[in-house]
Design a protein that fits this description.
Helices cover 28% and strands 12% of the residues. It has eight helices and six strands. The C terminus is likely disordered.
Length: 229
């Protein structure tokens, strides 16, 4: 145990233009402010995120998983950020849940909240993808061609980036640590054991939009307080 490191638990499948979601989460755990509050949506991405992005106290973590419904994570994180204006709140969400309540991003920007949004995007409803495969149905029914999230976030007043390389993670999180920006929408790439798309290869799903998950990673945006974010 003395020599154990979290990265020993898995084989890193990062490629030249994608980041293994587990590796990305370990990097985010180190890069984000240590005193963060974390609010999580639910979905397949939580299998990789929850064991690898920690909080200092159990009361600093909550999951918006009521009745197994996705899409409540962003709204819950906005509430947490309003309740703790002196803290950095981190929202971890999947692509499907994020796009369900994308309009809430405008609320976060308008309120100038200290909020970092990490979107794990595999261009699919991940749980449904697994279930369709399990029951012998075509998993392509779970796939979605989302619009590009980064341009949408920027148009709404947030700063957004897409992460495709591990070293790119530090740039958005550095602003949060220094307090120079109030918003970040980050999409590290997420890895899948099975390709999410039939045209995917080597267990990696192609990414569309700014997404993490089984696709190319796209980080998102941060907006400075003076710029309404």
């Amino acid at each position: 145990m003395a020599t154990f490191t979290p990265s020993d638990e898995f084989t890193d499948r990062t490629t030249v233009d994608t980041v293994d979601v587990r590796t990305a989460c370990l990097a985010l755990d180190n890069a984000l402010p240590a005193s963060r509050i974390m609010v999580s949506d639910i979905g397949r991405f939580t299998n990789s995120v929850w064991p690898r992005i920690a909080v200092q106290d159990a009361r600093r973590f909550t999951t918006m998983g009521g009745f197994g419904a996705i899409g409540l994570g962003l709204a819950g994180a906005i509430g947490a950020a309003i309740a703790a204006p002196g803290e950095t709140t981190v929202a971890v969400v999947g692509d499907g849940g994020f796009i369900m309540h994308l309009g809430e991003l405008a609320t976060a920007v308008r309120r100038h909240l200290p909020l970092v949004i990490v979107v794990f995007n595999d261009s699919a409803y991940g749980a449904e993808h697994n279930k369709l495969q399990r029951y012998g149905a075509d998993p392509d029914y779970s796939l979605n061609a989302w619009p590009e999230f980064v341009p949408i976030a920027k148009a709404m007043g947030a700063t957004a980036i897409s992460i495709r390389k591990l070293e790119e993670i530090d740039d958005p999180t550095r602003h949060a640590r220094e307090g120079g920006s109030r918003h970040q929408l980050t999409t590290p790439q997420r890895r899948h054991k099975r390709p999410v798309r039939r045209d995917a290869h080597a267990g990696r799903s192609r990414i569309r939009g700014h997404s993490p998950g089984g696709q190319r990673c796209q980080p998102a945006a941060t907006r400075s307080p003076s710029a309404s974010a």
